[in-house]
Amino acid sequence: MLDDRKASILRAVVEEYIHTAQPVGSGHVASAPAVSVSSATVRNDMATLESEGFLAQPHTSAGRIPTDAGYRYYVDHLAGRAILDRSSAQQVRFFFDHTHGELERMLADTSRLLSGLTGTAAVITGPPQETAVVRSVQLVGLTPTLALLVVVLSNGGVEKATVDLGAAGADADEDELAAAGAHLSRHLVGHHLSELAVVPAPPEPAHERPALAAVVAAARATADGSDGDHLYVGGTDRMAGAFDAVETVREVLGLLEQQLVVVTLLRDVLDRGLQVAIGAETGMAPLAECALVVAPYEIEGEPVGSVGVLGPTRMDYAQALAAVAVVGQRLGRRLSEG
Amino acid sequence: MLDDRKASILRAVVEEYIHTAQPVGSGHVASAPAVSVSSATVRNDMATLESEGFLAQPHTSAGRIPTDAGYRYYVDHLAGRAILDRSSAQQVRFFFDHTHGELERMLADTSRLLSGLTGTAAVITGPPQETAVVRSVQLVGLTPTLALLVVVLSNGGVEKATVDLGAAGADADEDELAAAGAHLSRHLVGHHLSELAVVPAPPEPAHERPALAAVVAAARATADGSDGDHLYVGGTDRMAGAFDAVETVREVLGLLEQQLVVVTLLRDVLDRGLQVAIGAETGMAPLAECALVVAPYEIEGEPVGSVGVLGPTRMDYAQALAAVAVVGQRLGRRLSEG
DNA sequence: ATCAGCACTCGGTAGGCTTCAGTGCTCGCC
DNA sequence: GGCGAGCACTGAAGCCTACCGAGTGCTGAT
Question: Do the Cβ atoms of A98 and A116 come closer than 8 Å?
Answer without folding.
Answer: no
